[in-house]
């Protein structure tokens, strides 16, 4: 039986679960009414599950996966996700009920219409070059085979197509700590190419990149660490289709927050960071100046 969520349950796991179940149903060639009949559920309940309005028990998710022809690995991941739909501020630890290779964040990123991103240590994945991504992923996974490193780089680079997609590319505001520009990831040639790429991407009409200089001193990003705030499409009457969500990428897991007070705190932090960053034009000059420095060795 599908269960309503309590006032403290995070919406992130059930929204992602519903989104993926809906995609699986469509790939299986089933309309909502037909799937509901086969699963002995009402079409209304099916719609609410796929819209992330309610959570489902693991046994129900298993039945849907079997009907839709999901792979054993994906079924395992979705059943694990069903167990997480009662969490509060949700911490997705790698290798727990949900396998490490199952990337929940990508689904949120693809659905978002607006992203505010603070990055204190490295270039955001959406803006990385192949060479920079390879250096980062290899450093984080020193024991992986070259083929697996290459596969992960491909996945990361493929995500970037959402910035240039024809239908409503998301608005992306990125605040980079100055240290990101000065840390020679992969060597001088890689960094030169990466910073030139930043300059190019910043010309997209939906992308704004600003640098937070060392001279800004203390700001809220020093306390918050890396984070992203994702916002989603509005309905015709201006209401949110999904609540804004804060995502923080951790070393052993990912943090998802979507309670209004949590999001407000991170909104305030980003506004403070953004206000203390260099103007866009000055940021561009510094980025290109640093690219030239790397090119000169």
Automatic annotation (TrEMBL):
GO terms for molecular function: DNA binding. Pfam families: DUF5753 (PF19054), HTH_31 (PF13560). It comes from the Bacteria. This is DNA-binding protein. Residues 104-288 form the DUF5753 domain. It comes from Streptomyces chattanoogensis. Keywords: DNA-binding. InterPro entries: Cro/C1-type_HTH (IPR001387), DUF5753 (IPR043917), Lambda_DNA-bd_dom_sf (IPR010982).
């Amino acid at each position: 039986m599908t269960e309503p969520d309590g006032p403290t349950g995070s919406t992130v796991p059930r929204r992602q679960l519903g989104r993926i179940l809906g995609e699986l149903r469509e790939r299986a060639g089933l309309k909502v009414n037909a799937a509901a009949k086969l699963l002995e559920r009402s079409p209304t309940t099916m719609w609410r599950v796929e819209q992330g309005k309610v959570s489902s028990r693991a046994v129900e998710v298993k039945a849907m996966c079997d009907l839709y022809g999901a792979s054993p690995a994906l079924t395992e991941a979705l059943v694990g996700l069903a167990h997480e739909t009662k969490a509060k501020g949700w911490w997705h630890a790698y290798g727990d009920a949900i396998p490490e290779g199952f990337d929940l964040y990508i689904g949120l990123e693809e659905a978002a219409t607006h992203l505010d991103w603070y990055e204190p240590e490295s270039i955001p994945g959406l803006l990385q070059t192949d060479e920079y991504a390879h250096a980062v992923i290899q450093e984080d996974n020193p024991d992986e085979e070259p083929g697996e490193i290459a596969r992960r780089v491909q996945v990361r680079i493929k995500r970037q197509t959402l910035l240039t997609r024809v239908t409503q590319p998301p608005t992306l505001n990125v605040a980079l700590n100055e240290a990101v520009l000065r840390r020679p990831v992969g060597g001088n040639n890689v960094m030169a190419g990466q910073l030139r790429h930043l300059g190019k991407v910043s010309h997209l009409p939906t992308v704004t990149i600003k640098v937070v200089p060392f001279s800004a001193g203390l700001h809220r990003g020093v306390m918050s660490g890396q984070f992203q705030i994702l916002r989603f499409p509005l309905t015709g009457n201006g209401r949110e289709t999904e609540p804004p969500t804060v995502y923080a990428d951790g070393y052993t897991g990912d943090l998802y927050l979507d309670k209004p007070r949590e999001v407000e705190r991170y909104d305030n932090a980003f506004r403070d960071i953004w206000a203390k960053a260099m103007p866009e034009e000055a940021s561009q000059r510094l980025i290109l100046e640093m690219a030239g420095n790397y090119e000169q060795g």
